């Protein structure tokens, strides 16, 4: 049995918002911004966008997150979960300051 699993699957998550289109757009924007942020900061082991910045991958597996990325995305009360529930994560476009600050703290500690 593989321990690899989808950490975020945008399409699967959005299924929960079929009856709330006003919320769906914000959730999709937040998850898209998250995947782009992870790639931009070399926290993934694969490409999630093309050369134009268009999202290619809508699901990110645990094995596709780098070791440094796991410090940001895994564990109890991790920065990504806090950001997803924050006002910044709910904005459209999302405010990435909380994640940027958490990543700077992680990188400074290493």
Automatic annotation (TrEMBL):
Region named Disordered: 74-94
Highest taxon in the source lineage: Bacteria
The protein depicted here goes by the name: Uncharacterized protein
